[in-house]
Input
Amino acid sequence: MTPLKRLLTATALTALAAPLAAQELTIVREVDSNNYDPHKTTARAAAEALFMLGDTLVSLEPDMQTVTDGLAERWEVSDDGLVYTFHIKEGVQFCNGREMTAEDVVYSMKRWIDPETNSPVSWRAGDVADVVALDDRTVEYRLEQPFSELLYQLTQSFATVIAKESVEELGEDFGINGFVGTGPFCWESWTPRDKMVMTRHEGYNWGPAFYENDGAAHLAKITWQIVPEENTRTVALVTGQSEATQYVPAIALQQLRDTPGVSVQQSDNAFWTYFMGFKIDKETVSDPAVRQAMNLAVSQEALAEDLMFGEVEPAYSYVSQAALDWNSKLDDKLLRHDPEKAKTLLDSAGWTPGPDGVRAKDGVELRPTAYVFAGSGWQKISEFVQAELLKIGVGMEIQAFDATVAWGKLATQEFDVFGMSYPYVSSGDALNLYFRSQNMPTPNRMNWNDPETDELLQTGKTALSDTDRAAAYGKVLEKVHNAAVWLPLYHEPMFIAQSDKLEPIQPHNNYGAGFYKGLDLKYKE
Output
């Protein structure tokens, strides 16, 4: 019996409703977001919905390199890189029927960077001097210093333009009990840990030009259904209970490719990396020898081949070595599987094995606590790492949390190790996200607090030449790799498995939200 047949016979679909009508689509995914406020969440699950519920000033084409129109039909940048002038499309409306103006852009951008909002991603807006509305359809975005990646960052879901009245009406419940944006779909309902439902925004006709569809969405309704169990997601697709998912278990990819009525789309145009990070000021993992040994203990190649069935690339670097501004001087210095060297490092650092094989030093056992997301994906990954570490005397303990609470738990100082995956298109995008001291305690969950790193990141961020930017980011990459701040696991392409009843879906990897705005989602005639 094939693995897929075993899945079909062993798994019930109690989590899913009956198939939807012809113009409705169910997308199954593994985890939910903690909320859907673009300024207060870094979850991919939030971005997946926000790209459909709202719009940004500029958009990113599927090649993950070309910035194109969004709410702005065009823009200009001053010679000194300090002033961006955006010209807003005519006729844009919020889902509540109100016309969107430049003042809504100003409100959204200023809320994003307002210290009271406490956005974990406000750095992505650049060093803002001011954002002003010159008239109803013209926005001037003024920077204190140049930001070489500003346009890219403005394509992210964090830069979604929102209706002020919705924020004021809902208060702390904005993005929880409701949301008003200008996107091709409108918020209908959200039941945490169960499903989100969104309906077509009638009259929408201001989507990015790269979409063939220049009007409203083809679909009347999209339901995002949470299905943590990977077997159930697979069966849902095969049996027609769901029409699409980007949360495809590696074990099922080849079987899905061979299954009539199902196809798998793949994109290698961007990067997604899985890693486990260390909170470097905690009692056990504060020791660099421990962090280095844990890196040496884990076989990324075995993880990629045995657990992920060869569908991913083993990762030894924190960003893909194909990413922009990767420091090639590190290629021969990356930590690779060598458990005997790991044991020697721990021996030399004074960590000696106890009666049960777990090492200890000065009365402290080497039992770091790891926080991960609940669900079959991270459960398997963390258990693989746990088994590898035990071979060298590290007794890692795993605590898994549902995504609706996990983000809050990951903002605490209660753990030693955490599991995470993230999207990026350049080294600078990744490094600015995780290693700025101002981003503690999240997303800089490692408590990496290094003034030189901050200075180099700022140099790279404001550089006006490719050479200067690459040099600055390259030094940061060298620092954090030498410190073994993370344990990289694997780099993953974007996969979307879909019913052949749908037109072929082009995966879009902006922040890993594979369906992006959903304007091309369509059933075949």
